[in-house]
Amino acid sequence: MEFIQSLLAAMQDAVAQGVLWSIMTLGVYITFRVLDFADLTVDGSFATGGIISAMLVSHSVSPMLALLAALLGGMLCGFVTGFLHTKLEIPGILASILTMIALYSINLRISNFASNVPLLGVSTIFDQFGSVLKGVGSNVISLIIGLLFVVVIISVLYWFFGTEMGSSIRATGDNEYMVRALGVNTNTMKIIGLVLSNGLVGLSGALVAQNQHFGDVGMGTGTIVIGLASVIIGEVLMGHRFSFAYKLASVVVGSIIYRVMIAVVLQLGLKSSDLKLLTALLVAIALSIPVMKRKLFTKVKPAESEEEPND
Amino acid sequence: MIELKNVSKTFNANTINEKRALVNLNLTIESGDFITVIGGNGAGKSTMLNLIAGVFPCDSGKIMLDGEDLTRLPEYRRAKLLGRVFQDPMRGTAADMGIDENLAMAYRRGKSRGFRWGIRREERDLYREKLKTLELGLEDRLTSKVGLLSGGQRQALTLLMATLQKPKLLLLDEHTAALDPKTARKVLELTDEIISRDHLTTLMVTHNMRDAIRLGNRLIMMDEGRIILDIKGEEKKNLQVKDLLELFEKASGSAMDNDRMLLS
Ligand SMILES: Nc1ncnc2c1ncn2[C@@H]1O[C@H](COP(=O)(O)OP(=O)(O)OP(=O)(O)O)[C@@H](O)[C@H]1O
Ligand SMILES: [Mg+2]
């Protein structure tokens, strides 16, 4: 009975966390699925968003403004990666690793060399909302605010990726070669995608920091893997079909399910330090499913002589 | 009018893999010309088209289009002038997007893309009408993903996309080579139809000698980065495949070597 009760409490928390982190997952979806770009910047930009908002709120800046600043900070991180990749022609993953590493130092500068920025005695956006809705549990408050943000963000993303520019970004991820031949600067499209993605990641970090009442320079570690795991879980559960809005919604569902799964394994006695291993395993398995299928279900054929590439 | 003036391109310069793909090439394409291009493996045909399209820069020389110097313009900026269809059917279309979305991308070739909706309603009627001319039934599958189409259907669609906004020059690089003979024929007929209907200036690489002779008003043959034959008008009309082979041997001093060249 006790187990069930603590599980239920953990579930509530997990769902709220899942929604707050899903904003990051939406960002990862944009780079990983739309642009086909594995962007490790997010490990840095998530913490950047968290630190920026914690610093501002602790200095009595309005929590809402702090979120906005975190969004812009995240966007700037994405721009740097985009610049390194497209203008300086550094391979995508490497460009994003460079930004991520640089952000460790930068985040410590922003936090004034404190590895942890507590939010004590100041009110976050959750506290503000909670004082309006008296008597509502803190998990529910977190959930409501998270959902409000998610609904607005999904609407904006749905609109944006339906516009001429958004379509060009989607097409760039699909077939860069064609898009250039049709007169679009694919470098610009990649940069816009990275800026948008990391803006969301920074915002998500900011919301998480305000929700947990502290920002931490290490809070972004593993973000990319959590994001990928959530995207993949969402796709497995909800399928690949239907409209873009549906796909975005399934990303959010994926993020929630991920948190719930984590809560369950923690209740079952796993240490929280094991979670990164577990998440990495999950992603490795999910990403290898197509290869496994191919290897297991196709008969071994004698090697065919490949035709020469000729242009 | 398009002019290539003394254009050269060497790949991997100053290494053991150095390859002079184009050597001081000169070519003037008059408006309305439909030029077929033939030549052996590695003759530089694709390189010539890629240089015009700006896929990579020339080492030296100039590319002019109607008096405008394209030489230093990036690929995406030249796109407003050029329609392109590639050998690989996968290259010309976005597989995960709908037929309508692909056409909408092409419809905006060379135009700025802002925050207006990606496809306007009245466009769909235009696309349906255009797709009908392909006679492949694609007009009823407007929102299907292009990835579901066959290679021939994709190639026909790419052709339509390349000509949706009238290009100043249409570049076709063996665009039927990856298709089965029957589909290839169909796509080629379509190509000829569209070119003559819209009076498109065209450069078409083909490995089929008969097609090269039968289609267009001018034929050029390339070898080792040079144009070794340039035949137009009456002379081209009376050409036979065996004449071409003879001319090739005389001009290059060796027999035509192209494993994909169809001699009959
Ligand atoms: N990107 C590249 N890097 C290095 N070498 C290249 C590149 N593109 C072409 N080449 C070389 O330049 C030469 C001309 O190639 P090109 O593709 O223009 O030939 P082609 O006439 O189109 O031949 P094919 O009939 O086989 O298509 C070839 O020797 C080729 O290996
Ligand atoms: Mg070629």
Strand proportion of chain A, as a percent range, falls in: under 5%
Instruction: Give the averaged pLDDT of chain A, no decimals.
Output: 90
CATH architectural type of the largest domain in chain B? 3-Layer(aba) Sandwich
Order of helices and strands of chain A: HHHHEHHHHHEHHH
**Whole-number average pLDDT of chain B?**
90
Low-confidence stretches of chain B: none
Query: What order do the SSEs of chain B take from the amino end to the carboxyl end, as H and E?
Result: EEEHEEHEHHHEHEHEEHH
N-C termini distance of chain A: 68 Å
Helical coverage of chain B, percent range = 25-40%
Shape of chain A: globular
- Helix vs. strand class of chain B: alpha/beta
SS elements, strand count of chain B: 10
How many E-type strands of chain A?
A: 2
- CATH topology grouping of chain A: ABC transporter involved in vitamin B12 uptake, BtuC
Low-confidence region ranges of chain A:
302-311
Report on the architecture of this protein.
The complex is a heterodimer of chains A (311) and B (264). With 311 residues, chain A is mostly helical. Chain A has 12 helices and 2 strands. In chain A, helix 1 runs antiparallel to helix 9, helix 6 runs antiparallel to helix 11 and helix 10 crosses helix 12. The longest helix of chain A has 33 residues. The C terminus of chain A is likely disordered. In chain B, the strands form 2 sheets. In chain B, strands 6-7-8-3-9-10 form a 6-stranded mixed sheet, sandwiched between helices. Chain B has a 4-stranded antiparallel sheet with strand order 2-1-4-5, with helices on one face. The interface between A and B is medium-sized, with 24 and 40 residues. Magnesium ion (MG) binds next to helix 1 of chain B.
